[in-house]
């Protein structure tokens, strides 16, 4: 993965407090509030994928599925599954069009299946992942920012 630019680091530092606040307050919501929040997020993500990612528009469309079909979390069972082979075949069609010309951060899977999968991350969105990871790690270890950390997915 390439290093973050100064602008990307600044964006991350500006967004970190909001992401941390969400992490701290989400568990205080009732289960029903959490489910509603989760459904809204999934609906927005599916609508974005259908609108901007050619692979998902085609993949879901060929199975007769539309993002607007997600009226409840129970509807997720109808969403077509996506395999690693599907993503490998899709190549750049699996990247949202608004992000194709941005300086995305590439990372490559370990290839335990014998096939390397190249993933692309928007550096401005990494803060949410970082805060969530740090929250989980700090709950179980005495982690400090100067400690080295290996990330395995």
Comma- or semicolon-separated keywords:
2 strands; 153 residues; globular; mainly alpha
Characterization of the model:
The protein has 153 residues and is mainly alpha-helical. Helix content is 48%, strand content 5%. It is built from five helices and two strands; from the N terminus they run ααααββα. A two-stranded antiparallel ribbon has the order 1-2. Helix 2 crosses helix 3. The longest helix is centred in the first third of the chain and has 22 residues. The two termini are 14 Å apart. The model has no long low-confidence stretch (mean pLDDT 82).
Question: What portion of residues belong to β-strands?
Answer: 5-15%
Distance between the termini: 14 Å
Helix content class: 40-55%
Give a short account of the largest sheet: 2 strands, antiparallel
Please give the radius of gyration in angstroms.
18 Å
Stretches where pLDDT falls below 50 for ≥5 residues?
A: none
Tally of helical segments: 5
Could you give a quick summary of the protein structure above?
The chain has helices at 6-26, 31-52, 54-62, 84-90, 126-140; strands at residues 105-108, 118-121. With 153 residues, it is mostly helical.
Topology readout:
Blueprint: H1 6-26, H2 31-52, H3 54-62, H4 84-90, E1 105-108, E2 118-121, H5 126-140
Antiparallel strand pairs: 1-2
Helix pairs in contact: 1-5, 2-3
């Amino acid at each position: 993965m390439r290093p973050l630019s100064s602008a990307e680091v600044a964006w991350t530092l500006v967004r970190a407090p909001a992401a941390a606040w969400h992490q701290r307050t989400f568990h205080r919501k009732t289960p029903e509030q959490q489910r509603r929040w989760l459904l809204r997020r999934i609906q927005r993500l599916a609508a974005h994928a259908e609108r901007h990612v050619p692979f998902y528009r085609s993949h879901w469309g060929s199975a007769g599925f539309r993002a607007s079909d997600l009226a409840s979390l129970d509807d997720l069972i109808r969403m077509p599954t996506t395999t690693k082979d599907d993503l490998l075949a899709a190549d750049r069609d699996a990247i949202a069009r608004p992000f194709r010309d941005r300086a995305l951060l590439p990372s490559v899977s370990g290839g335990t299946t014998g096939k390397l999968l190249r993933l692309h991350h928007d550096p401005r969105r990494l803060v949410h992942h970082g805060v969530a990871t740090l929250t989980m790690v700090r709950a179980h270890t005495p982690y400090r920012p100067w400690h080295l950390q290996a990330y395995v997915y």
